[in-house]
């Protein structure tokens, strides 16, 4: 199974949080009931300007800000990046519970080539880390709690190792710098089919008919009807009548080696990150093996490991335990004014 396939829902619902607003960095998209301005976001959080690494050509990520009246504005916020083939919408419920039960603001982003963020040719953890760095500069964030799941976890590990002063602490979910399970590595074939199959859909097909048209191609590659549904829901009808994907499958293919196969090689020569790091691992998967934990400790010596009885989407399988682990880990603050 691919490490992250999700139905991309768009509509915010419920009123658990006093203010939840979806933004585009380029233009604010706010709902009259839940309104938080860009000016408020910039004023609320740490204001030290940071120096950017522009060598990776950052993109402006789409995001959602979550806060409660009790959120501590002087604490570095939690910045969350999702896994491969997902979007920030897959973390909406978890984000609400984290900000309700915890003390930190939370910002959930769509990684480049995913969700509502721009498509770009480059797609490696280094590219995604540069996007987070640029986001922090745009919003004058001095430090963050870097929370990443799977692909997003590797982006956050890269950020912590290359720009440690930007990361107060790190939370990595079911991923390490070590090797991935064979079935995940082989999932490259899925993205190759995504690239090739769209040209076979007639332009006069509706979106629903186009999705039905591609089912036979993907039914050969996935194990369940549920996974199949989640894949085809990524199909989109473009303005010119042709079809495309919410994710940039070609960019993911091009960055596959650095992201999925030889990620640890991209970390060679980097100094260990000396901040506190929490690894939340799924007991029912093989992403986090004892050997992989040993590998991760080389780069993150202050590593705490917690196993939950879950599959790869730990936050969905064990939502209450997951939220408690994150809330407890972020109660104290090493970068807050006294």
In short:
The chain is α/β, with parallel strands linked by helices.
The total count of helices amounts to: 13
Q: What's the CATH architecture of the largest domain?
A: 3-Layer(aba) Sandwich
Q: What gyration radius follows from the Cα positions, in whole Å?
A: 19 Å
Q: Which geometry do the CA atoms define?
A: globular
Task: Give your account of this protein's structure.
This protein is α/β, with parallel strands linked by helices. The chain folds into two domains: 19-180 and 267-329, 3-Layer(aba) Sandwich (Rossmann fold); 182-254, no CATH class. It contains 13 helices and ten strands. Helix 11 (290-299) links the parallel strand 9 (277-282) and strand 10. Mean pLDDT is 85; it is low at 1-40 and 42-54.
List the helices and strands and how they pair.
Blueprint: E1 19-23, H1 38-44, E2 63-67, E3 78-81, H2 92-101, E4 106-109, H3 125-138, E5 144-149, H4 151-162, E6 167-173, H5 182-185, H6 188-197, H7 207-219, H8 225-232, E7 235-237, E8 243-245, H9 249-254, H10 256-261, E9 277-282, H11 290-299, E10 303-308, H12 314-317, H13 319-329
Parallel strand pairs: 3-4, 3-5, 5-6, 6-9, 9-10
Antiparallel strand pairs: 1-2, 2-4, 7-8
Task: Please name the defining characteristics of this protein.
single chain, 338 residues, alpha/beta, Rossmann fold, eight-stranded mixed sheet, two-stranded antiparallel sheet, 10 strands, 34% helix, globular, disordered N terminus, AB_hydrolase_1, sn-1-specific diacylglycerol lipase ABHD11
């Amino acid at each position: 199974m691919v490490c992250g396939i999700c139905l991309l829902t768009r509509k915010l619902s419920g009123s658990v949080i006093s203010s939840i607003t979806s933004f585009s960095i380029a233009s604010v998209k706010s709902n009259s009931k839940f309104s938080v301005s860009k000016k408020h976001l910039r004023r609320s959080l740490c204001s030290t300007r940071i120096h950017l690494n522009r060598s990776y050509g950052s993109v402006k990520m789409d995001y959602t800000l979550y806060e409660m009246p009790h959120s501590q504005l002087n604490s570095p916020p939690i910045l969350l990046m999702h896994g491969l083939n997902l979007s920030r919408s897959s973390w909406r419920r978890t984000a609400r519970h984290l900000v309700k039960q915890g003390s930190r603001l939370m910002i959930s982003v769509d990684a480049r080539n995913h969700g509502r963020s721009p498509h770009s040719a480059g797609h490696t953890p280094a590219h995604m880390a540069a996007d987070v760095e640029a986001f922090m500069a745009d919003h004058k964030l001095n430090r963050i709690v870097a929370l990443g799941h799977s692909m997003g976890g590797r982006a956050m590990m890269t950020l912590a190792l290359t720009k440690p002063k930007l990361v107060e602490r790190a939370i990595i979910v079911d991923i390490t710098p070590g090797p991935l399970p064979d079935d995940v590595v082989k999932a490259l074939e899925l993205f190759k089919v995504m690239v090739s199959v769209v040209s076979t859909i007639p332009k006069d097909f509706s979106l629903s008919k186009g999705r039905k048209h591609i089912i036979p191609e993907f039914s050969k590659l996935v194990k369940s009807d549920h996974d199949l549904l989640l894949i085809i829901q990524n199909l989109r009808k473009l303005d010119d009548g042709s079809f495309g994907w919410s994710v940039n499958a070609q960019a993911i293919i091009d960055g596959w080696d650095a992201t999925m196969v030889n990620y640890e090689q991209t970390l060679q020569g980097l100094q260990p990150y000396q901040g506190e790091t929490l690894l939340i691992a799924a007991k029912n998967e093989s992403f986090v093996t004892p050997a992989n934990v040993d590998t991760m400790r080389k780069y993150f010596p202050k590593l705490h490991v917690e196993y939950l009885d879950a599959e790869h989407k730990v936050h969905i399988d064990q939502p209450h335990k997951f939220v408690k682990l994150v809330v407890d880990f972020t109660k104290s603050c090493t970068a807050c004014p006294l």
